[in-house]
Specification:
The complex is a heterodimer of chains A (200) and B (227). With 200 residues, chain A is mostly helical. Chain A is 72% helix and 0% strand. With 227 residues, chain B is an all-alpha fold. Classes of the chains: A mainly alpha (200), B mainly alpha (227).
Chain lengths: 200, 227
């Protein structure tokens, strides 16, 4: 099971947001330190590109600072950050689809998209190869999901946000999030059926 | 403990090395200072676009557009209704006054009476009595119309004879003209009687509107010899 990555202390979030609203610039550094990992993790899994992920997370923090005056003291900081980042990811995804490029990291690494998964001291290279293929297939299947489904799945499974908070990010009810989550998993299963059958 | 669901197992195993976040804060501050120092976007179009995007403008504008479309549709509907109503009124006039032209067809009376009922808001009892009056007059007018037609044919025959032979029986010609004038006056009289009888069945408001519509039929026929 994944370890929760999102800082879950609402009181700290409120205090730092309040400090940021008052013009405390050091508060932004603290926020970046606390939130950069979950945000980069989300963006990277969403886009599959490290440069884009880093770029959009930096843009998200910059927007947070520039719009700090418009935020209320009771604003939901995680929801604001993930909403902004998810929208940026969606726009960047659209841009990338319309302007396809070859990622340098993929070109350098050849066929393997996850070089860290293959270690020289692993006993069974065939199992490792199969594992790498499955991860690649999963990445493709996640990338093929619609924005809402992809965002729901990533925020739920990797960032462990409560359904209520995901609903606030996507503008729908908890029940709607349940439905999206179920659909996302159904589509992943359908896309990965061949791999699951081979593995079993 | 691993999950029973292979999808969850696979999702758990998807742990790619995340991009290096070092220097992110510096990058953020660089963007912030760039945003602060970049000149604000200006220009008429940019300002217009920003203004239009404001809810204070866009919501009333959308409402005004919707109202405008509704008003246009309403105006067109009303104009069409007026045109239809005007045509039916003309048909009715031709039914009650042959001097204004031949009626549109065998069902002109029905159409004209239908128009009256809708336009004046006649009650079923009023409509039944008015219909009875019109049906009585209709047969009377049809008889007069046949006579007028015969007079016209005889006049045309005399005119043809005058052209062919260079002479004409003026006494016969004058007799036909007198006949025609008599028939016209009889038609006019019938129409007046009908309008008066129908008007007495109506309420004052219905009568006022009805007389406004049939004003053209209440003018006496010309006394010239031209047809």
């Amino acid at each position: 099971m994944q370890v929760p990555t999102v800082p879950a202390d609402p009181a700290t979030n409120r205090a730092e947001l309040e400090a940021l609203r008052r013009g405390d610039e050091i508060a932004l550094g603290r926020l970046i330190a606390r939130w950069e990992r979950p945000l980069i993790g989300f963006a990277f899994r969403y886009l599959g590109n490290s440069a884009d992920a880093r770029d959009l997370v930096a843009e998200t923090f910059a927007r947070l600072y520039l719009n700090r005056g418009r935020l209320d003291a009771d604003s939901n900081l995680p929801a604001w950050l993930f909403t902004t980042l998810a929208n940026l990811c969606r726009n960047r995804g659209r841009w990338n689809r319309r302007h396809p490029t070859v990622a340098l990291e993929s070109a350098e690494d050849g066929a393997s998209a996850s070089p860290a998964l293959v270690h020289s001291n692993e006993p069974d290279p065939r199992a490792q190869l199969q594992h790498g293929e499955m991860i690649e297939a999963l990445e493709r299947a996640v990338a093929a999901l619609q924005h809402d489904l992809r965002t729901t799945l990533l925020l739920h499974h990797y960032e462990h946000l409560p359904r209520r908070e995901i609903g606030a990010i996507l503008g729908c009810s908890e029940r709607g999030i349940e439905t999206r989550l179920r659909r996302a998993r159904q589509r992943l299963r359908a896309n990965l059926r061949d791999f699951f059958e081979t593995a079993s | 403990m691993p999950s029973q669901d292979p999808l969850d197992d696979l999702l758990d195993r998807w742990n790619p090395p995340l991009p290096d976040a070092s220097g992110l804060e510096r990058d953020v501050w660089r963007r912030i200072s760039a945003a602060k120092t970049s000149p604000p976007r200006s220009g008429f179009l940019v300002q217009m676009r920003a203004w239009i995007r404001r809810p204070a403008f866009s919501i009333p504008a959308a409402a005004a557009c919707a109202l405008g479309v509704l008003a246009f549709v309403e105006w067109r509907e009303a104009r069409l209704q007026r045109e239809v109503s005007g045509e039916l009124a003309r048909q009715y006039l031709r039914v009650i006054d042959p001097l204004l032209g031949a009626p549109g067809g065998p069902d002109s009376l029905d159409r004209g009476l239908g128009w009256m009922r809708d336009e004046l808001g006649l009650s079923p009892a009023q409509f039944a009595r008015i219909r009875e009056l019109h049906e009585t007059l209709n047969s009377e007018l049809a008889t007069l119309d046949r006579k007028r037609l015969r007079v016209r044919q005889e006049t045309a025959a005399l005119e043809a004879e005058r052209r062919a032979e260079g002479q004409v029986d003026f006494l016969a010609f004058a007799g036909l003209i007198r006949n025609r004038q008599t028939l016209d006056l009889q038609s006019f009289d019938s129409t007046q009687r009908l309008v008066s009888a129908a008007a007495t069945i109506m309420t004052p408001e219905q009568r006022r509107r009805y007389l406004r519509y049939v004003q053209a039929a209440l003018s006496p026929p010309p006394r010239s010899i031209a047809d």
